[in-house]
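Chapter review. Work through the record for isopentenyl-diphosphate Delta-isomerase before attempting the end-of-chapter questions.
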Amino acid sequence: MDPTQEKYLQDEKCFLIDEFDIVLGSASKEQCHLVQNDGNVKLHRAFSVFLFNSKEELLLQKRSPYKVTYPNRYSNTCCSHPLANIEEEDEEFNALGVKRAAIRKLHHELGIQPHEISLDDAIYVARIHYKDPGDGKYGEHEIAYIIIIKKDVQLSLNFNEVSEVKYVARDKIDEFLRETNAELTPWMELLIKNGNLGYWWDNLERIGDLANDDKIIRFNIKSN
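Structure tokens for isopentenyl-diphosphate Delta-isomerase:
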């Protein structure tokens, strides 16, 4: 395992939550992604950023080969977690803690300077709940906040996190995925197949009006 990624697994503390996104405590990133003997993975809070430029092209990333979960797969712009051991990332009003975490990770993974994106630029539109067994050792079980940003930014890739990026137009994404034979992260695949990404993409000009912070979109998961 890459030593940098291994350190993140041990040092980062993610928020453990229930199915209604209520915080129950925290655990290491590794504990939150280990597939247990019964096949379960601890439910934790996450986010997924979809960043579009002024031409409404979506910035896709290919995850680095060093990543513990889903290496070398294509995904949306940035995916990670608000952390319990970082100040103010627990603030829940208007998803401010998650937005702060998103800005932090955009800088860490893609070199986007924090002054380039404000909290107001980060539009929280929905939450999704999904589960995936990954490689059988490390998997996912998250309620992820969908954050949409429309901004032109400067990039400087952290190759320990991201191997390549590409801006893709709305009418070219199917062709891009087909021609590259791209293997997607499970959440990205779900959002494409179920039409969520297309709906948000088609409505970028009024994306703030589409925000639904009450409903959690559940993919193949039943709530109690």
